Amino acid sequence: MDAARVDWTGRYLNELATQRQLSGHTIAAYRRDLLELATLAGHDDWPALTHADMRRFAARLHAGGQEPRSIARKLSGWRGFYGWLSRQVGLPANPVDGVRAPRRPKTLPKALAVDAAVQLLEANRHGHPEPGELCNRAMFELLYSSGLRVSELTGLDLAYTKADGAASLGWYDAPAAEVVVTGKGGKMRRVPVGGPARAALAAWLAVRPPAADGSAALFLSSRGTRVTPRVVQQRLKTHAIQAGSPVHVHPHVLRHSFASHLLQSSGDLRAVQELLGHASITSTQVYTALDFQHLAAVYDRAHPRAKAK
């Protein structure tokens, strides 16, 4: 950097260190960002840089492979610097104001293939399972069968109960082969329970001990209290590792798999929205991309002209 830039940089960083008392690590990060700005600006004076220049610099960083989050951080640092510089030399406007980093690409939810989901649920079975294993099996089957959020799963009661003015927010309606859950926004919905999940629930209920806290919780921890979302996550992770799953499996993966597989089979986006409890169909439309990925994979495997020779 030329002498003027070195002077401005030193004064600005010194002010950050002494007046704002930022850490040495943060100061070093600001210094690197200003050095990068100097490289991008070339021989142009910093006070002469415009809004268009800053947009061009952000585009160059993106084209160079930098992540949107990293670019956003640098723009924030430059914006702070130009706010300070404008007070020193009287800039008409901060050239970084209004410049935004490129949007981060939306990541698709992770979903298992149908065969992988079935293999996961069928794994680790033996002739005489302990009650804890039966509880796990019922929880995992229900997560995939009904696409529940883990908080909805752990909130389920054995049946609808109302005591001391408090009523169940979720319960298993065995005669109707449904679960009733209260989702986000307090919205209640009924979701069907498939045959394997009903069988797993029946096996668990046959050995379920009374809850240690006297609650009507459907699923219990090893201490006999209502199971927590964290415990479900840990148990599913352990089960998946023992099953040899090549990917990390958490409860939301089973929910995503439920939605993706149901959409592949039915094509009914509105029905999937209702079963998932999404307030807006926009939240559900992400699964159409998963469905297309499935179709594209089938095409690549099956079509004789899909791959270039």
UniProtKB/TrEMBL annotation:
Q: Does the keyword Manganese apply?
A: no
Q: Do you know which Gene3D superfamilies this protein is assigned to?
A: 1.10.150.130, Intergrase catalytic core
What does the UniProt keyword field contain?
A: Cell cycle, Cell division, Chromosome partition, Cytoplasm, DNA integration, DNA recombination, DNA-binding
Where does the record place the catalytic residues?
Answer: R149, K184, H252, R255, H278, Y287 (o-(3'-phospho-dna)-tyrosine intermediate)
Q: Which residues form the Core-binding (CB) domain?
A: 3-86
The record's section on Pfam families has: Phage_int_SAM_1, Phage_integrase
Predominant location: cytoplasm
Assembly? Forms a cyclic heterotetrameric complex composed of two molecules of XerC and two molecules of XerD.
Name used for this protein in its record: Tyrosine recombinase XerC
Q: Which gene does this sequence derive from?
A: xerC
